[in-house]
Amino acid sequence: MAGRISRVGTSKPSTASRVAAAKAARAAAVEGVGGVQRTAPVDEVSRAESPSSIAMKSLELDGTKAADLKVQVEANEQALNDLQIVQSQAGEIAEKAAEATPEALNEAAGKVDELLEEGVTIANRKTEEGGFLFGGEQAKSEPFEAKKDADGKITEVNYRGTSEVGVEQLGSGFSVTPAIPGENTEATGAVGLVKDSRTGGDLFGNLISLRDNLLANEKEAIVERDIPALKKDAEHLIQHFGEVSATQMMLDTVKALAADIETTDGQPMSTVDKLGNIRYALHRALTDNRNFIQQDLLQPIE
To answer: Domains of the chain, with CATH numbers?
Structure first.
């Protein structure tokens, strides 16, 4: 019998609740950025620098650019939320297939066709400027092309974008990579939105396989191939949520520090304090979200 596409343990929160918790933690951390007092120094962050080295550093932060980039990152996050719904619904269909009648399997295949169409539409979303969110650098047309048969069913989804994405500079030596390529089959670079050779994620390919196996009444293939593959897609999306959360926290931190350069007593913050606060806040952003991903992946899957 097909196993449920979920994690073991009744106390394990859903992906949505874990993502919400990460957002709340991120907001709380950013709220305390200005004039933060560090009671537990982090070695790699608080290492002493010479006065001459500090004086040479520019602490000008581009808060406006950080705010603009956050709009793009929030659009990425919304697309990830929507793709997670597509993956979750496909998982529910797969887990019910073992006991379904042939008529029910055909009906379920039609639902997967709808999920495929919806997923391609999500992956082809545009930015506010008219470009494509997930086409990589210099995407001029829809990055995902769905090929269909004579009956109008999607038989293949090809990625026409690139796996390269740009690095955005925010000043003072800080940078973020807000864009997500549609897919990445290389050994390096940003993780692809729906397909990546390192994570094993391949959402569109797995939806097509599930649809075809439903139509062919191939219950064994669904249990042995499609359910494990959809589990990998779930883990793939969770990794994206962690990385997007880290990027958002860094952008929020830069915005807060750019706007709040005074201490609580109204005196200008010293160069040393500003540099220390920036480094500490961004270090915490990366550390907290890395832990979020690692703790999630440590949970067993049934």
So the answer is: 60-297 (1.20.1330.10)
